[in-house]
Specification:
It is a single chain. This protein is α/β, with parallel strands linked by helices. The protein has two domains: about 5-50 and about 375-449, Urease, subunit C, domain 1, CATH 2.30.40; about 50-360, TIM Barrel. Helices cover about 30% and strands about 20% of the residues. It has twelve helices and 19 strands. It has helices at about 70-80, 100-110, 135-140, 160-170, 195-200, 205-225, 235-245, 255-260, 285-295, 330-340, 345-360, 430-449; strands at about 5-10, 15-25, 25-30, 40-45, 50, 55-60, 85-90, 115-120, 145-150, 175, 190, 205, 225-230, 250-255, 300, 380-390, 405-415, 420-425, 425-430. The strands form five sheets. It has a five-stranded antiparallel sheet with strand order 5-16-17-18-19. Strands 9-10-13-14-15 form a five-stranded parallel sheet. A four-stranded mixed sheet has the order 3-2-1-4, with no helix packed on it. The longest helix is centred in the middle third of the chain and has 18 residues, at about 205-225. It is globular. About 55% of the residues are buried.
Length: about 450
């Protein structure tokens, strides 16, 4: 690939038109008419460009669950969805609770080349909620872990949570909590409400999420540490976060695309593609989280991409695994629910899906912005396109998407990571081509360093 690429006529998040010149992996210019003679020219007229998307909540499943996803297949799915950086959750086998495992995940991301992989370390050993993991070892490893979570399980012991918050504050890390009071959700299958009663499924009450968030924001205030709330889903949760921020507590929160769009009514057909944790909530909850994202109470959108093999989803609802894939559809769902509704602008999309996730994850020096001199992580979208989403639209190893058969707006045309294409003209670039680009990028980085 030519080391100089000029994207001519791209629409920046602000709406301004720019020619984006990328040279040797960095943005060289954003000025109209700046394409140099030695550049490969790419017509980007009509395409919206965003900073490469950053997902703070991805399950790549490797090591241990490669039938569902691998680092390679997961980062290919990320690239197809416009993501250039993903934070990989710790619930693997073995659990990412020590330097050895997080370095393995990090290295596999380096080798794959489709997205920067930042491992998330477990808060507790084995995700058992009892003893703190080797937080210092992971923070000081080559993976430089800054986010810690037992996602999939709640850190329910308040003393353990307090100690974790105190520990990560020594290096400005963050604890990302899966807010679920386990004693209130034993056997829960979906949101507790009129629909669960009608279907005869055990309910997952909203207060099980809200009570943990309320406790943890108080612990964050007491310790002065940073708390991040994963996949916030209820109206009262939004209110708790809003009040905590008004008090100056260092808390951030994320919402998933599916909690912005889908409700518990989706469960009426007992289709396990819609079984997720936390569950799809009521219409009033959906409207509340949209409003919370729009006004900044909720800081970011994160996918909670959770792949499963077909046998874990194509079964009775009660036996099915929780979770749905979401990397390839996240931007489309945000466009549908937030941009086309007038609740957010494309500048807001860039903030909630690129800039702020990078800040929370401690990588804002290398991701989340389009600026001269910065690494060229770029996502180009045809916002006017409409596509019928199907299983064939999925790039990863699993097909448990709730959007199969649905028309979605927007289409990723190009994804560029570190100045080389991972998606070009809507097609994920071949692994050998990406591998060659990674090697070439490494040589240039060594030369420039």
């Amino acid at each position: 690939m030519n080391s100089v690429v000029a994207f001519v006529g791209a629409i920046l998040p602000s709406g301004e038109i720019a020619d984006i010149v990328v040279r040797d992996g960095l943005v060289e210019s954003l000025s109209p008419g700046a394409a140099p003679a030695d550049a490969e020219v790419v017509d980007a007229s009509g395409l919206r460009v965003l900073p490469g998307l950053v997902d703070l909540h991805t399950h790549l499943r490797e090591p241990g669950f490669e039938a569902s996803e691998t680092v390679l297949s997961g980062t290919q799915a990320a690239a197809a969805g416009g993501f250039t950086t993903v934070f990989a959750m710790a619930n693997t086998d073995p659990v990412a609770d020590n330097a050895g495992v997080v370095e393995e995940v990090w290295q596999r991301g380096v080798d794959a080349g489709y997205a920067t992989v930042r491992p998330i370390g477990a808060v507790t050993r084995g995700l058992e909620g009892e003893t703190l993991s080797d937080i210092a070892g992971m923070a000081n490893s080559r993976a430089q872990v800054r986010v810690f979570s037992d996602d999939g399980k709640c850190v329910f012991d308040p003393l353990v949570m307090r100690r974790a918050l105190e520990y990560v504050s020594t290096f400005d890390g963050v604890v990302a909590q899966h807010a679920q009071e386990p004693r209130l959700t034993v056997g829960s299958q979906m949101h507790e409400g009129a629909v669960s009663a009608r279907l005869g499924l055990t309910g997952w009450p909203a207060v099980a999420e809200e009570s943990i968030i309320a406790r943890d924001v108080l612990l964050a205030e007491y310790t002065g540490s940073r708390l991040h709330v994963c996949h916030l889903s209820t109206e009262r949760s939004v209110e708790i976060i809003r009040a905590a921020k008004a008090r100056g507590i260092r808390v951030t929160a994320e919402v998933t695309p599916h909690h912005l769009l889908l409700t518990d009514e989706s469960a009426q057909g007992y289709d396990a593609r819609f079984k997720v944790n936390p569950p799809l909530r009521s219409e009033s909850d959906v409207l509340a989280v949209r409003a919370g994202l729009a006004d900044g109470t909720i800081d970011i959108v994160a996918t909670d991409h959770a792949p499963h093999p077909s046998e874990s989803k194509e079964c009775e609802w009660g036996d099915a695994a929780f979770g749905m894939v979401g990397l390839e559809t996240a931007l489309s769902v945000v466009q549908l629910t937030m941009v086309e509704s007038g609740l957010m602008t494309w500048n807001d999309v860039a903030r909630t899906m690129s800039t702020t996730p990078a800040q929370i994850g401690g990588i804002s020096d290398v991701a989340g912005q389009i600026a001269v001199g910065r690494i060229a992580d770029l996502t180009f979208i045809d916002e006017n396109a409409r596509r019928q989403f199907s299983v064939a639209s999925l790039t990863g190893k699993s097909s448990n998407s709730p959007y199969v058969g649905r028309e979605l707006p927007g289409r990723i045309v190009h994804t560029m990571r570190h100045g080389y294409f991972t998606v070009r003209n809507g097609v994920v670039v071949d692994t050998e081509v990406v591998a060659a680009s990674v090697r070439n990028h490494g040589r240039k980085a060594q030369h420039n360093g």
